[in-house]
Amino acid sequence: MPSRPPKLSDRHQQVLSATVRHYVATAEPVSSKVLASEYDFSVSSATIRNAMGWLEKAGLLYQPHTSAGRVPSDSGYRIYVDRLMTPDLAFGPEIEQLLAQTLQNGSGSIEALLQGATQLLSTLSGYVALITRPRYPTRCLRHLQLVRVDSERVMLILVTDAYETRSVLLQLPVDGPATGAATGATIELADGELQMLSNYLNSKLRGRSLTDLATLDWGELDRDFQTSMELLRQVLVGLVQEQAAVPSPEIVVRGIAEVLRQPEFSELHQVQMLLHLLEEEQDRLWPLVFEVPRPDAPARRVTVRIGSENPLGPMQTCTLIAANYSCNDTPVGSVGIIGPTRMLYENAIALVETAADYLTEVLRVD
């Protein structure tokens, strides 16, 4: 059972907060003289030194070297995140606007959206950014469109609620064999008729799962469109099978080069273990990034795992910040950042939370 965090006086809170902020900014151990000169404590460096000594005994600070200043421990960062940090209320809206402008309000495929969002998060944070691809209980049809290619062919464009796009070239059916001929003539459909057919199919099929489409009784559809029904049914069945058969990597990862610039990742062995986890063992990483909410647990908007709180060895010098994104109130994926425990938590948390909210809004099916 974890030990109860120590009760801190106002001064202890001020000194711990200042130590965290200074160490995050400089990556240098913090001395009492530095805090006395750069922060307005209105007390002597000796008083600050005593407070830092108390925080060290409480396990919230430690000295990496005997003659060095002190740096925050995992427990120190935890208290800072839970009790002491002050969120920048203007930062989230700025990031939301930047996401919308950069990603063009979610236009394009879900894959392009995830790739762009992950790259932007990595650039803004300076850490590894990762976004899990959405896992839907069932994929549903969001939109379909029939577009003329030439006099004999049309293109069927299918968009799911995961913003996955599939396009299939269709050969227009023939209208039965002509008298004395082996084959009939290709049915001609004007652009207006194609649009009417698209509108009709959207009104009947939008929101249905792809598995439903594969087993749908097409005889229930309007007989005015029966000439195209069998061909469309075959194509949609093929799309269902194709999507089930083609797996893709579960987590989009960007920013490995960014995080390698951090001094905490100067040891080659540590970097190799982290890279192996990100590239080869995503199945182990997935449950940490995408945490399915439990009905009996209190709701957490953002999960922050600091250092030794991470159960995987390569992650125990890192902090993982993650937040789920949803589709119509159902969590389907997660946005995360991995960096050193010496992290600007206020901005990193706001980045992750804002990106998750943005994806939730984009994926909303009205």
Automatic annotation (TrEMBL):
Pfam families: HrcA. InterPro entries: GAF-like_dom_sf, HrcA, HrcA_C, WH-like_DNA-bd_sf, WH_DNA-bd_sf, WHTH_transcript_rep_HrcA_IDD. One of its GO terms (biological process) is negative regulation of DNA-templated transcription. Keywords: Repressor, Stress response, Transcription, Transcription regulation. Residues 111-349 form the Heat-inducible transcription repressor HrcA C-terminal domain. The keyword Transcription applies. NCBIfam families: hrcA. Belongs to the HrcA family. This is Heat-inducible transcription repressor HrcA. It comes from Rubidibacter lacunae KORDI 51-2. The lineage of its organism: Bacteria, Bacillati, Cyanobacteriota, Cyanophyceae, Oscillatoriophycideae.
